[in-house]
Design brief:
Blueprint (H helix, E strand, L loop, with lengths): L6 H6 L6 H16 L2 H7 L1 E4 L14 H6 L5 E3 L4 H11 L9 E4 L12 H7 L2 H16 L5 E2 L23 H16 L12 E5 L18 H8 L1 H8 L4 E4 L3 E2 L2 E2 L4 H11 L5 E3 L7 H4 L6 H11 L4 E2 L4 H10 L5 H17 L12 H7 L3 H14 L1 E5 L12 E5 L7 H4 L14 H9 L4 E5 L12 H10 L2 E7 L20 H9 L5 E6 L7 H6 L2 E4 L7 H9 L65 E8 L3 E2 L5 E9 L5 E11 L10 E10 L4 E8 L1 H4 L1 E2 L5 E2 L3 E10 L2 E10 L1
Parallel strand pairs: 1-2, 1-10, 2-3, 3-4, 5-6, 6-9, 12-13, 12-14, 14-15, 15-16, 18-26
Antiparallel strand pairs: 7-8, 11-16, 17-19, 19-22, 20-21, 20-25, 23-24, 25-26
Helix pairs in contact: 2-15, 3-14, 3-15, 6-17, 7-8, 7-17, 8-10, 13-14, 17-23, 19-23
1-deoxynojirimycin (NOJ) binds next to loops.
EC number: 3.2.1.21
Family: Belongs to the glycosyl hydrolase 3 family.
Enzyme class: hydrolase
Length: about 750
Amino acid sequence: MKRYLPLALILGISLSASAQDKKIEKKIDSVLKLMTLDEKIGQLNQYTGDRDATGPITNNPNKLKDIRDGKLGSMLNVRGAKETREVQEVAMQSRMKIPLIFGLDVIHGYRVTFPIPLAEAASWDLAEIENGARVAARETAASGVHWTFAPMVDIARDPRWGRVMEGAGEDTYLGSKIAFARVKGFQGKGLGNLDAVMACAKHFAAYGAAIAGRDYNAVDMSEHTLWETYLPPFKAAVDAGAATFMNSFNTLNGIPATGSRYLQRDILKGQWKYQGFVVSDWGSIGEMIAHGYAKDKEQAAELAIKAGSDMDMESRSYLPGLAKLVADKKVPIALIDDAVRRVLRKKFELGLFDDPYRFSDVARQEKEINSAENRKASLTMAEKSIVLLKNEKEILPLSKNLKKIAVIGPLGKSEKDMQGFWSIAWEKDNLISLYQGLKNKVGNQTELLYAKGCELADSSKAGFAEAVAVAKQADVVVMAVGEAFDMSGEAKSRANIHIPGVQEDLIKAIQATGKPVVVLVMAGRPLIFNWTADNVSAIMYTWWLGSEAGNAMANVLYGNYNPSGKLPMTFPRDEGQIPLYYNYLSTGRPAKNDKDTRYRSAYLDMPNSPKFAFGYGLSYTTFDYTDLAVSKTQIKPDEKITVSFTLKNTGKYAGEEVVQLYLQDKFASVVRPVKELKDFQKVMLKAGESKTITFTIDKEKLSFYNQQLKWGAEAGDFKLMIGTASNNIKLEKDFTLL
Ligand code: NOJ
């Protein structure tokens, strides 16, 4: 395969059609003509502000002087209407007066925090996810920030990797839909509107497949897996109009992604005709030296700019490296011009040349930040993100007549941990703990008891006795266990993903009191808690839910919201099973069940199956799937099958079900997964209500990358499966593509 496109071709695709675009291209021409080489390189240079550093700062030059000298195009970690205005004023003192772009990691909300992205993905509610990004964009833009480094669209199949919290989980289809929704949410009606921020699809590419789940580690994968599993969410981000991309720290098959022409020039800017710009990850250009790919910063700069990395975040390689490289004729000026064009284009689209301060408006900031409307959106998203894993003996929803509820566990009164890892602009006044949420809910008729029981991650059981004594006084015990906010996130890989410390021992001690126990697991990744899963009657996975965490949990505990979340990632029984995901390839010796191990692709000491499967999640009500009907069982390539069935709410409560359509290509020129999610719908039904649900299957849904990496469908037999979880299929039918 050809690894990259000729330069002329890449540069030749920069012009796009609309009149507005043409006007902007003309303006860029006129600005470019006036710029010196140093000023051009300055546009490709990005420093962090001194507050909220989100990576290692290697040196601390005189940043303001560099801005004044026209040596900076963008800053990250400068936020606030007043602060951004002050820094922008310095840029206006430079010769060319080119405004700076301010970027920030707004990953799950700004001042009002939202559930972590993995939690939001559990909602399978695309409209609500888009709205969450919309709210975050409004607050961010009102704080003078033009650009969020989100969404992270990396597919992740390894829960040891701490950054699973930041993505949409393991599935390419769901991940692509969510990538699209998030980009749309951030960018709203388009750049230039005062409530829109630039999105940044990251980390390009395959960062989520770090070997052994260790952050920043190498990635080694087939082209096939890259194209079929890891790239589609990025393509979805392009289709949604993502203004920028960020490359990644990892090597991909031996080449650092930051220095990969194949990824950035051939695929992104070539095949996908991408017009936005690519920012490096923090220091990743310079890190090519540590990779052993570049001998010094100058060579790193050469490799990165040639590969298509347009902006250097914090590695101080483009400045001063590029000027010498151009002088030595190692880097053509056309490459610099193309990168600068891409950056200037966004500055024009944002309207910054018309008014560099247009986002830095203190009055608007005050009105927008932490508004009741924004908090309401966060609450709704949080309710929808909760996954009910178990509910036996009808413990949930809680009765309104309980006299005493005990909140027990190290996260019962925690506020900061509810914010999750990426919550930069939160403030103490906007956090609701579980305890506080229950207090708001129960009023005076129910007494709320509390005991911490133990710390999150140490070995002391000194608090157990008090916790048991408190539990004994209560009608119901609600336990809050899981991870601290900094146990999942960037550089937060863990080899042991069991519930940390002695928390599961605390659950055992409380369960031994015989009181009804509800366990809430609050975490940034799938954790392992087999004893709890097997012995406790009611379990909810609440992840980290953001500002309104406690209110959302209380609403779900009391049934004011009927849980509807479904797991976007497989929960293993043991770390030894990882990577474990539902859409694995068929093997020649499949095990028929968990006991079938003889000369089978199986473990002798453990089932193959997960503890909780992808797509799994319960409701307080129940749903029946009946009356499957298909319009055809044989189709030609240009035909479609309409699949319909009846979904009935057979329980006592109104509720939402996420109905999932999986397909299997039974034999093909490339071995196919045992099943793949290809569509879903989130359906609301009143108690007793039925609805006919319809899916359409067309050639696109049957397509895959063949041995030549060509996308298309092959004639043959397929199976369609409709279910409530990847391991709980209710209806199925075979059909043939002619
Ligand atoms: C490094 C992270 O990998 C990236 O996702 C983030 O946007 C940058 N740091 C900036 O904070």
